Amino acid sequence: PNGLYPNLKKKCPQIRGKSLKDKSKFWNLKTIALAANLLAKPPKKVEFENEHEMRKVYSLIYDVFRFKVVLSNSLNDIEFYKRFPEHKEDENRIWLMFYELLGRNFKQRYSEEIDLQYKLFRESEVEEIAEHLWEFRKALAASISRMRIKFNALSLSKLLPIHLQNEKVANAASNTMVTGWINPFLLRDKTSADKFLLEYGYILQENDNEHVLDTNHYRWDNVCPLFISCVPQDKGEFTKSKLVTQHYFIIQDKAFSYGPAVMSRLLEYFQLSGDILQTHISSPRSTAYLASLFYSINRVNNFYVYGAGINLKEYRKFMEILGVCNIRIFAELFTSFPLESKRFGYVVGIFANPPNSFSAISDPIDLICSRGGDLSMLEVLTESEISDEGKRRVSLILEEQLLTLQMAMSRPQIQFLLYQTHSIVSAENQDMIDYAVRLVNETSLRKHQSAFREKKRLEALAEAEAANIPAAAMGSPRKRAANTQADEKGKSSSATEAGAARTDGPAEPTADADDSEESVVLPEADEFICETIPDICINRDNCIKQHSIGCYLSLIKRKKVTQLNAKYLIKMAEARGLFDTAEKSPVPKAKGIKAQDTNVEPVIETEYLNNHRETKHINVDQLISRLMKDTNSSLNRIGVSKASNLNHPVKFKFKRRECTRYKATLLKIYQLTKQETGVFRRCSLDSFEETCSVAICCVKRKNLRKYPYPLHIQNLVM
Questions:
Q1: Strands 227-230 and 300-305
Q2: Where is this region: Disordered (predicted)?
Q3: Please, are residues 271 and 259 in contact by the beta-carbon 8 Å criterion?
Q4: Residue 149 forms part of a structural domain
C-alpha cells in the first residue's frame, strides 16, 4: 500500500468550530481607524496589539477591495468625485468609509459610540470623508438599490464577479477555531505540550467522532505533525496569552501545512539521506514549520531556503525569535544559479513552491499576516477584471514555475521534488507538471543521443586509425552515412534470406539494430515520472485527496531512485577499479571493432636497419664536468667535524641536504601517479618516498597493463 502506516484504523472527520453570526463582533471603530491608516497615501505606521487585531484589520481591507467595483460604480453614479474632486486621489479610504456606511445599512451610529467615532476618525484623518458620505447617504443607497434591481441580485455579493462572490474571508474571520503548530524548539515532546496546554485551561478532545470542537478544547491533527486545532473562549485574549506571544504556539492555516508535512516524510519514504532545499519563501511560518519537522529527522543533513530577497534580515530574525536553528536562508533566487554551480552538490530532495495565484486558499488573510501585511497581495487577490498588468503578472508566474521545475530536475543528484501551489488553475498545477516533466525527459534523451553519436564517431575514427586508413580517405559524413545505409540494406537482405531458410528456431535480434540513434533509451536513473503522494495520515484515510485542502501537491521522482549510501559508493568504486576488482574482471571489447583486415604489410625491422642506426655520440667534456660536481653525500659532510673536537658533541650542527633533482622527480612521479590512477590517493609524499621502489613497481605492474600509460610517466619509472 502507498503509505507510511500499515493498518487502516478509521475515518478522519473534518473538524470545525462554531461561527459567529454577527460581524460586528469582530469589526469595530478601532478596526476601521487602523484600516484607514494603512490605506493612507503614503501608508501610516500601525502597531497592532495582537495578531487577532491584525487579522481583523486585513480582513476588512480585503472585503473593501473585493467590493470596490460596486462601490466605484455607485460613487460615479451620483457624481461624487465631481462634487468633491479633492478626494479623487484618496480612493482607497473613500471605499473604506463607504463600505463601513453600507455595513450599518446607512443608519446612524449608536449614541454611545459617536464620541469615540469623532476621536478615532479625526486621528485617522477620515472625518471629512465620513461627513461627505453621510451627506449623500440617500443617493448612495438608491444607487446600490438600482444596481441590485438591474442585475436581479438578491445579495450585494451577487453583483461581484464569480471568483469574488465567495465569503471565505468573512467566514474565516467569524470562525472561532484557531489552527497552528506547537514549537518543538520550546516544547520538546507531545507530553510536555499536553501538560503546557492544560495549564492554560485547554483540554484534549480525544473523541475522533466529534466534528465540532467544544470551547477550550483542542485536538491533534492526523496528517500534519505538531499541528493542533483549538477553540478558545476569546480569540483576542488567546492571541494575547503567553502561548502565542512567547511563540509556544504558532498560528497558521492548515492549507500551508500539508506541503511541509508531506515533504518531511519523503526521505524516509525513499530511504534517502542528504540535504533538502526549498526554492522560495511564500510564508515564513510555513518554512519554519518545515524546519521544525526536520528537527527530529536524522536523515536531513542541512536545510537550505532560497528566495528571501530584501526580507533576508527580517526572516532570519523571525527564525531566531522562534528558536529555529537548523535552517540556512539565502537572499538569492534558486533559478539564478547555473547548472555548473556546485552549491547544491549534496541536495537529494527539493521542495518547489514557486509564486502562484493563491486562488485556492480559503483564508488569504493568514498568508497576508504571515508576510507581515502585504497590501499588494490583497490587491492582486481581489482583481475584478484582467488588465494588461494582470496578464503580464500571470505570464511571469508561469515562467517562474516552469524555470523552477526545469532547474530542479536538471540537477544530476536530485532524486525527487515536491511541487506545491495554492491555485485552482490547471495551467499552474497538473498541466505545468506534465509539460515540465516531458520537456526535461526529452532534453535528457537528446543528450544521450548526442553522446551516442559522439561515441560512434570515435569508434569509427579508432577503427580507421587501427586499419591505417587516413581520415581524409573516409570521405564526408554524408558519404559515410550513405555507405553505412547501403551496408545495412545488404545485411538486412542477407538476414532476411537466412531467416527464411531457417524456421526451426526463434529469430535473434542482430547487433546492427542497436547501432541506430533511435534505439537509444533514456536510462531509468535519468528519467523523471510523477509519483502518487504517499498517504501520511495516521488512519490511512487519504485525507489530502478527499478533503478540500486549498493546496495542490505533486510528487516527481526519478524512475530509479539512486540511494547514495555506502553500498552504492563501494559499487561505484569497484566499477572504477579503485579496489583492484576491475583489473581481475575481463575488459569488455569495444563493440563494433573487429580484427583489422588490411592489405598494408607490417614494417619489419631487418638486421641491416638495426646495424645501421645512427648512434648517439658521447660528449667527453660534459661527462667529466658532471662527474666533478658535488654529490648529495659530499654536500652533507661539508662542515661536519669530529665529535671529539667539540665541547658539546650532542649539539653539533648537521644540515641535511637533499638532491633537488631527485626530489623534483619523485614529486612528479607522486603527483602523476595520484592524478592518473588513483593509487596512493591517501599516501603522503614522505611515505611515498620511503616506499618509492614499491610504488614504482605498482605503477609498472598495475597501470601499464591496465590501460595505455602516458609516455612521460613511463620515462620516469622505467
A1: unpaired
A2: 472-518
A3: no
A4: yes
Name, in order, each residue with C-beta under 8 angstroms of 212's C-beta and a sequence gap of 6 or more: 15, 16, 17, 18
Diameter of the chain measured on Cα atoms: 130
**C-alpha angle with apex 470: 464 to 473, nearest 5 degrees?**
95
What's the predicted TM-score (pTM) here? 0.71
Residue after which a domain boundary falls, among 224, 251, 278: 251
Amino acid identity of 232? Answer: P
CATH number at 187 reads: 3.30.70.1170
pLDDT in tens, 118-167: 999 999 999 999 999 999 999 999 999 999 999 998 888 888 888 788 77
Is the bond leading into 649 cis (omega within 30 degrees of zero)?
no
Burial string for 124-154 (b: 16+ CB within 10 Å, else e) reads bebbebbebbeebeeebeebbeebbeeeeee
SS3 assignment, position 204 = strand
Q: What angle do CA 219, 220, 221 make, to 5 degrees?
A: 115
The secondary structure element, H or E, covering residue 275 is strand 274-278
Band the pLDDT of 709: cuts 50, 70, 90.
very low
| CATH for 337 | 3.40.50.150
Q: Are residues 281 and 292 in the same domain?
A: yes
Dihedral angle over CA of 135, 379, 51, 48, nearest 10: -50
Report CA Rg, the chain: 39
Task: Give phi and psi for 2, each to the nearest 5.
Answer: -85, 85
Would you say 358 and 423 are in contact if contact means Cβ atoms under 8 Å apart? yes
Closest CA to 372 of 471, 282, 242, 301: 282
Per-residue pLDDT tens over the stretch 264-296: 999 999 999 999 999 999 899 999 999 999 998
The last residue of a domain, from among 251, 275, 296? 251
Name the grid cell of 377.
497581495
Considering the domain architecture, whether residues 193 and 233 belong to the same structural domain is answered as: yes
Q: Clarify whether residues 80 and 178 are in a common domain.
A: no
Select from 695, 693, 668 the least CA-distant residue to 683. 695
Query: What pLDDT sits at residue 80?
Result: 94
Claim to verify: residue 295 and residue 377 sit in the same structural domain: yes
Is 22 part of any domain? no
- Beta-strand pair 274-278/300-305: parallel
Tell whether 630 is covered by a domain.
no
Does residue 532 sit in the same domain as residue 394?
yes
Sheet holding 227-230, edge to edge: 203-204, 217-220, 227-230, 178-182, 249-251
Which region holds residue 383: left if phi is over 0, alpha if psi is between -120 and 50, else beta? Answer: beta
Q: CB of 371 within 8 A of CB of 283?
A: yes
Full domain range(s) for residue 231: 167-251
pLDDT per position as a tens digit, 599-657: 334 444 444 445 554 455 667 777 777 777 777 666 666 655 444 444 444 444 444 55
Place of cell 547514495: 564
Grid cell, residue 354, equals 514557486
Q: Does one domain contain both 402 and 546?
A: yes
